[in-house]
Amino acid sequence: MAWVKMPYGDFIIQDAGDVVLLAGGTGITAFIAFMENLTDAFRNRVVLAYGARKPELLLFRESIDAKAGANNGFRACYFVESGGSGNPCGFPGSQSPELLTGCLSLDSVWQQLENPKETTYYIAGPPAMIQTLTGNLLKKEIAAERIKVDAWE
After folding, report:
1. Structural domains of the chain, with CATH
2. What pTM, to 2 d.p., does this model score?
3. Alpha helices, DSSP H only, in 56-101?
4. Nearest-5° angle of CA 22, CA 83, CA 27?
5. What is the pLDDT of residue 92?
6. Strand spans (E) along the chain
7. What's the pLDDT band for 82 if we cut at 50, 70, 90?
8. What average pLDDT does range 21-42 have in this prediction?
9. CA 26 vs CA 1, 58, 104, 119, 136: distances in Å
């Protein structure tokens, strides 16, 4: 027997302001189409914070790094549970950031945001990560309508 979950929802990234993409593990797939189509015509800033257990589990890293190098408004930040360094997300201007050791951290990207309360946050990943990051955003007084979740489990 197999269990199949059908696609649903409207997890669509809007061109209405700056965005932060928070991805854990295979949650990165929710953002790939958006990132592949990201051009300089998208006038807002995009920050990707992406975490995985090990560096080799960071899917699509080459294409993410290429996009960061080709698009001035796009920045990436990687987190791994082991095998990382202390580089602060490669901000600003680094085309290929080093890996940070530890869980994906909102605080690591927070200082890079010009107007965090006017930014929209998209979260995709494991349920515990989604719950933690949503709670952290609410504690920082981010309006609930600025937090978009792709709950895939």
Report:
1. 19-150 (3.40.50.80)
2. 0.85
3. 61-70
4. 25
5. 47
6. 19-24, 46-52, 74-80, 99-101, 120-124, 147-150
7. confident
8. 90
9. 23, 8, 14, 23, 21
Paired tokens of 134 = 């949503």
Q: Give the amino acid at 99.
A: L
Q: Contact at 8 Å (CB) between 122 and 16? A: no
List CB contacts of 34: < 8 A, sequence separation 6 or more.
13, 21
Amino acid making up residue 73:
G
For residues 60 and 69, give the distance between their C-alpha atoms in angstroms, rounded to a whole number.
Answer: 14
Return the amino acid letter for 112. Answer: Q
The token pair at 113 is: 């945001």
pLDDT band at 83 (very low <50, low <70, confident <90, very high): low
C-alpha torsion sign, points 105, 126, 38, 62: positive
Please give the radius of gyration of the chain, using alpha carbons only, rounded to the nearest integer.
Answer: 15
The separation between the first and the last C-alpha atoms of the chain, rounded to the nearest angstrom, is 18
Q: Are 98 and 46 in contact (CB under 8 A)?
A: no
